[in-house]
Design goal:
GO biological process, one term: protein import into mitochondrial matrix
Distance between the termini: 21 Å
Radius of gyration: 16 Å
Keywords: Membrane, Transmembrane, Transmembrane helix
Structural class: mainly alpha
Protein name: Reactive oxygen species modulator 1
Order of helices and strands: HH
Family: Belongs to the MGR2 family.
Subcellular location: Membrane
Length: 74
Amino acid sequence: MARDSCLARITAGVAIGGAVGGAVGAVYGTYEAVRFKVPGLLKIRYIGQTTLGSAAIFGLFLGAGSLIHCGKSY
């Protein structure tokens, strides 16, 4: 598989989107858990759900954007 193949670009887009989305989700989840005074160990669950949800959505969108860009040659 060539380094510049479409599948490699999509995979890289999903990975980068997941990393950025996870970081943003962790920060936002922590802020919301503290703001709404989520009790005890539920904070960890809330932060985890926010992190995974944000990583999945952002990774999906960046992967879709990479797929759209695959067909274009500049």
